[in-house]
Amino acid sequence: MGLMWRYGEVSGNPRWKGMAWGMLPCLGSAMCACTWHLFFNAPELQFLVALQAFLTVVGNFTCWWAAYRIYQGAQEEAA
């Protein structure tokens, strides 16, 4: 995420910063998985499984959207 943000600053293309923001739900999903396994799959933390699934879906969509915006920007520059 930091690399994407930095590339957006260096290239002057703010759409790359959008990709960094788009990756944020994926990071949340990973934290849910790590927490779940850190506590040996405790039944009290079962809600983390559903939260991880939700954040994965949201993260996949936001990364797709950010990648599409980067692609759109490249197409506009080429025209």
UniProtKB/TrEMBL annotation:
Which keywords are on file for this protein? Answer: Membrane, Transmembrane, Transmembrane helix
Q: Transmembrane region positions?
A: 20-39, 45-67
Pfam families xref list: DUF2499
**Highest taxon listed in the record's lineage:** Eukaryota
State the name under which the record lists this protein: Ycf49 isoform X1
Species assigned in the record? Micractinium conductrix
Query: Taxonomic lineage per UniProt?
Result: Eukaryota, Viridiplantae, Chlorophyta, core chlorophytes, Trebouxiophyceae
